[in-house]
## 1
Amino acid sequence: MIIIRLAGGFGNQLFQFGAGLLLAKKSGIKKILIDDGALNNYDAKRQNELLNFINLKGISLDIKFKHLNITKFRLPRLAPLNFSKFPLVSDKNFQKIIKSPNNFFALLDGYFQWELSQDDFNEIIVLLGEFLVNQDMKINHDCVIHIRGGDFVNLGWNSVASREYYLKSVETMRNEYKQDKFYIITDDREYSKTILDRLDIDCEFIGKSMHEDFRLIGSFKYRILSSSTFALWASAFGDNEKSFVIAPKYWTPGNERKIRLTNELETEL
């Protein structure tokens, strides 16, 4: 079996579950246990969002949720040995193990966004996309801006999507793509206003829930994203036939994003 320690918000959960699905495909393992007990450890309690966004019944694997003592010891993080078929999988040894996985047992504990190759990411998009709960989208030909506040501000992670980043991104959308109407999706309207005050744009706040925000981001033809994994996945699963996407170069300060989205514009932002 494969055991996944689920942690973080919805975007993190998608990376972890996606890494598990990719490992299951490569190893031939058909059973996945997901331990979501760690979600209770956060100050702002997290929820298992996979249950709301993924049609688990449509996956031809035996997937169950169960609290397990083994995940509490964080063994993959304590001993991330970097050799083939090692059963303890973290960010540090994922690339080695995914090339030659153990076909009997694996315990995953990591975020799995830092070390994915582009091919890994593209394959995970396909694996997850098959089971994403269908959300019909009416294509919007304006521009959406996602601004992440809240814990990102407290941690200082908002610095990679600074006012200057949004200002330059808006200028690109205006000058190159003739966009003059912008729709704002955010988890923190008060923080967003400190960004928008300097942009001098015609804008409107939209979105009322996580589900609606996720659907809306992917429905816009033009997108300016924050460094949030939530925004990245929403764009990855959106209508990308003719989209134009701007996203920050870094996940967090000092951690450059190695994977790219469909139709992401080449920028130094």
## 2
Amino acid sequence: MAPRRLSPQSLRIQISSGELDPVYLLYGDDEVEKTSLAGAFSAAIEEDVRAFNVERMYGAESQTTIAGVLDSARTLPWLTSRRIILVLQAERLLAPKRESEAISRELEELEAYIRSPQPHAALVFIAGELDRRRRVVGLLMRHATVVECGGLEGAGDAARWIRGRVAEAGGRIDAGAVRLLAERSGHDIGRLRADLERVLTFVGGERPVTAADVEEVAGDPGLKDQWAIARAIEAGSAGAALRELALLLDAGAVPLQILGQLGWIVRTEPPKGRFPAEGVAAAVEALFRTDLALKTSAGDPRVLLERLIVDLCGAVKPAAGRRSTTPGRPA
């Protein structure tokens, strides 16, 4: 299988066409993008048979094994032409912390599968940072369809991202609006996504987005330090976190922007992050559930975010005397 590199936008087009490849590797630190693409893969299977043909696994869960992933990929689909297996937190499987003869054999089996995958399955590895020294990672890079879901590296990268998303939405945007959106975001992918969604909603596709539209509805560029909600969750203080959520929403913060910030809390490992490893799997599931609900209007955004915060705080076991290392705050 020849390697292929796709952008997230190109992957969405491919998924909507129904012509899926047998193995994918989605990696990078943009959790919202990866969650959205995972949802797109799931939606590619008809709803009536989705429960039988879409399987979601988490590499951080002890019951998830390479053998189990391969068994699922080799299972024939039911009443459809393809099964989809989503392996989230895949870096935990691709680079296990503990080595053993059994794990080595499983990795060899996975390598063999990558070289000769089943045509009836789409096996999707969704990962954060990858150890490219690992042989299995190198094989995925060479044989899988690879999609990087990373942050923005500069103004040019941000501008390309904006134009791609606007084109995907069927809209138009002028150069001044692109430049202003990129500047206001500070190249923060979460903030840029939220600002662009607000502007596109404001314009409604009736005309090109202008710099004046960005000035009218995009976030205040002076609001750089909004991490009080993160610190409250790190401390396991649901009451304080809910109060900070109310302040942000009342100030006009975009729910998806807040969701992106909460995703940062979960996915960032120590020393920068302070979310307990044992709570990550449940937290990721709660984030995915909330993201899907927000994007499908399956509830009031304030209520959905409040429930998410309660879930995240419940997964935190604060260590006595620890200090927050949230961005913008001294350690």
## 3
Amino acid sequence: MRLKAVLRLILLLFLAASLVALVVKVLRSDRPAGVAGDAGAAQGLPGGDRLIVYYAHGKFRCRACNSLEEYAQVAVAGFPRELAQGRLEWRVVDYEEPGNEWFADRYKLPGPSVVLVCYRHGKPAQGEVLQAAWELLRDKAAAVEYVRREIRGRLEGK
């Protein structure tokens, strides 16, 4: 009887440790792999070519900021094939987190922003802040369509 209790405790501890490891992995996957130093950020496709859609934010996150992130994420989800192929990626970055400050400087962020970064041969080749997304914030459908249109244009090489 005592052996059963010990085995049950060991099993519960293993389960708890597994859940903690899974949560940590999920939380880390929301952070851009290449933010704290872009080396190797885009190696999923041969040659490392892809488009990464970043939602960049600071420590303080207002309701409008959260809405912008949601709309951008919905827009990215509209490209399931490209996501599955590794041609498109969604990442969230806190540009105020130590090691990520350069992100705001490099892309001249006015504040929380949706940033499209084209990677060529594994290196950031071109980045653009979608500032008009803020102007469309009161119209979710228009904001999502704007971000999708910009993504589609980059994916088609325009």
## 4
Amino acid sequence: MYAFKDIVKNALPHGIVTRVIRSQAVRHRRIAALPLCSGAAVKYSYQDSIEFLCSRGLPRDHVVNGSIPKTSLDFCATHLGSKTLGDKPLIGLHVGNFLGVSLAYFVDFARKINPDSMVASVDPNLTHRGIKNPQEHVVALLNHFELQHNAMISVGYSGTKSVSNDGVAFLDDSGDEYDPFTKHASEQSCENSVRNLSLLSVGRFDFAVMDGNHDAKYLHIETDTARALLVPGGSLILDDVDDSWVDIKAEFGKLGESGWSIAGTDGRVGILTLPR
């Protein structure tokens, strides 16, 4: 390596070599001077996460209505907090990020248990509720509250490719209709993310949150695959276990009869646990 540098120095004019060395030194000084974080940590709160996303120009109705409400997230936290978790790092899985409201909540909750906790998330990052590239907002939200150190994002479908937006058409930010059926062929992401994750980490996750595809058959495969990820006694949290999604509510009941124990529901989210 040093011989090569000597050859270069001898081959190039002295002035050019000097400028290269100086520019490298300048770069190293500028890199060393960069702050390790964006500034003073902003304390997380659910409402502040909503306001932050709205401040980025996102429609409030989509931010609020497309996210799990705080009362339901608090219900989940109460359940998880009541388990004998100790102070070991929590490992969680979150399927279906949208704008990151519930993801940020669970990351903050897990970090309060132990600063080394981690929540992995899976989302294909497709246009949802007319909002393009939602992952951009997810990452911004995590960084705003200094939660990025405890989150790991995987871009992909939890299972195989599926129809986005649960087949519902929304207007995008330019006022054009985003029809998930006509856009389906052009939508691309990785697939089988939960299965692939189970190949890397069997029986390590303390909880899993499922808030992605709302097709009952798809959800059944998701939950069956996620089972291998969870520790004995681990918790499975399903969103939209209500009368607005009767198939999801029915699937929740079926899971309670097939090896899972129903821990409870608040009318919006349902929680199941694996036997110890």
